[in-house]
Design brief:
Number of domains: 3
Protein name: MBL fold metallo-hydrolase
Pfam family, one: TPR_16
CATH architecture of the largest domain: 4-Layer Sandwich
Number of helices: 19
Keywords: TPR repeat
Organism: Candidatus Desulfatibia vada
Strand content: 5-15%
Length: about 425
């Protein structure tokens, strides 16, 4: 038998006995991993905070890893891959120069690399490493570290962290998990986001990790209060210059999820604002109104909806600025008058609020909120008899009083039951 025939026969046998799976596509060989890359080169940012710092894109079951260089090394999210520290040494870094590890949250693909680092003999013996995690991080993870004799720095958000000689603000951004944090560097307008914001995906609100959609929206609002251009995410490649847009895209998708709307549904900003208001998501209402006003400045409906949301959020001075603009053009707008009275009431300017309620009710006596708020203002001014003459307030007051009586009666009955048992 010739050598050529042997090879052909072997190939036929391989094909004959190879298990066939319908529609299975056998993957090509995985491309070489690029290894550690310069953050400064990726973002095209000059400056000391990133010039020597490195980025390792995640693969398999690992997150991205960031090595911030300066007076020492700080690792942000050591991932879940045992090779990262060996690869770092190939660049001329000494792993013993790593003095701090920051975790954006406690998911395995972000944090399990901690244990690979702690197994390095000198680290295990000296235990001179600061591990920074949110106070709500996984209890089992924290317990294991403490049992090994390593100390944790637990943060809540709002702290300024010295990382390799540079100041980063810790921002609590719950939602994906309850313990999610982002790290913000104001000078470079850069934020490390973990899984809170990703360039080409939306993280789930992981209920097992304490995540929730409402919290997620709150966390993103915290980020949007900052001036952000660049994003170093937990997965995929960093984002340069368009970071704000990426955050807003994430925010908008999550808002659509909150009101069960898909990208295929056609909905105006004001329709979205109305549905979000029904859910009590007032910060998102303000966002939608702002988007509408950017497209159509002076839209009275958007201005009024925004003012109502701001009032309910306790941002009464901002609401008054908008309401004054409305009333300058529509002095007979009964709902705007009632809203300004409400805002003044929120600022404890009870006497000043009364004329606005009176003017609103003169134009439209059926505005129940104006009646109730007027009754509240009169009550705060110790004009109780006048307040009780307002039927809507009297009913609302009686219902609240009845609820309090019922509550006390239930507590009394429960106490008697506890004593008898």
């Amino acid at each position: 038998m010739t050598e050529e025939f042997k090879k052909e026969d072997q190939q036929n046998q391989d094909e004959e006995y190879k298990p066939l799976i319908e529609d299975e596509v056998y993957p090509e060989a995985e491309p070489d991993h690029p290894g550690w890359l310069s953050i400064a080169e990726i973002l095209k940012i000059s400056g000391p905070v990133f010039e020597n710092s490195k980025f390792l894109i995640g693969y398999h079951q690992s997150s991205n890893v960031y090595a911030l260089a300066g007076d020492y090394l700080t690792i942000v999210d050591p991932g879940n891959d045992y090779t990262i520290f060996n690869e770092l040494e190939k660049l001329g870094y000494n792993v013993l120069d790593i003095k701090k590890i920051v975790l954006t949250h406690g998911h395995r693909d972000h944090c399990m690399g901690v244990f690979e680092f702690l197994r390095i003999p000198q680290i295990w013996e000296n235990k001179e490493i600061e591990i920074i995690i949110h106070a709500a991080g996984p209890m089992e993870f924290k317990k294991t570290l403490q049992e090994y004799g390593f100390s944790l720095t637990e943060i809540k958000g709002g702290e300024t962290l010295d990382l390799s000689g540079f100041e980063w603000e810790a921002i609590h951004t719950p939602g994906h998990t309850i313990d999610s944090i982002c790290l913000y560097h104001p000078a470079t307008k850069t934020v490390i986001t973990g899984d809170t914001v990703l360039p080409n995906a939306i993280s789930d609100a992981d209920k097992a990790g304490g995540g929730s959609l409402d919290h997620y929206l709150y966390g993103l609002r915290q980020l949007m209060e900052k001036e952000i251009e660049n994003i170093l995410p937990g997965h995929d490649v960093p984002v340069a210059r368009t970071g704000r847009h990426t955050i807003e895209q994430t925010y908008e998708v999550l808002m659509m999820q909150a009101i069960d709307v898909t990208s295929e549904d056609k909905m105006s900003w004001m329709e979205g604002a109305s549905k979000l208001a029904e859910k009590g998501l007032l910060g998102e209402v303000v966002f939608c109104c702002d988007k509408e006003l950017a497209l159509r400045p002076g839209n009275m409906s958007a201005m009024q909806s925004k003012a109502l949301a701001l009032n309910d959020m306790g941002r009464c001075e901002e609401a008054i600025e908008i309401l004054d603009q409305i009333l300058a053009e529509q002095g007979d707008n009964a709902h705007a008058l009632a809203s300004k009275g409400h805002a003044l009431l929120g600022l404890q300017k009870y006497e000043e609020s009364l004329p606005y309620f009176d003017d609103a009710l003169a134009l439209n006596p059926d505005i129940e909120e104006a009646q109730v708020f007027k009754g509240m203002a009169l009550t705060f001014l110790d004009r109780h008899d006048e307040a009780m003459e307002i039927e809507a307030f009297k009913i609302a007051f009686a219902e609240r009083f009845k609820d309090e009586i019922d509550k006390r009666q239930q507590e009394k009955e429960q106490g008697e039951t506890d004593q008898s048992t």
